[in-house]
Task: structure prediction
Amino acid sequence: MRTTVGVFSLILAGLLACWTAPASAADDQMLVQAVSRDTGVPTQKLQQQKTDTGLSWDSVRTGHLLAEAMHRDFAEVAEKMKAGTPWHVIAREAGVSKSQLDRLARQHRQSPQPQR
Result:
């Protein structure tokens, strides 16, 4: 029984290490390109914004789409997100639906890509 618990603990520790391990440079590049396709923002600018804000790639993407839908600057939306306001609360207060954000991302994906 003790051996089973020990083995289970090692497996769980390994899984947690994999889940929390930082993304490789190749993974990071794929993510920034996907965010760029969905937002129409050049990858270099997105990388700088991610560094400056400390937001995840998903939050950077959502922040850009929200800012566009709200006719606001990304920095304004990012500040609210960094302060702990969830994106769905920001969207609800602005009268923006998830379907609007999805539609914007789809429009960007169908548009010519920005200069990288």
Summary: The mean pLDDT is 84. The first helix runs from residue 2 to 20.
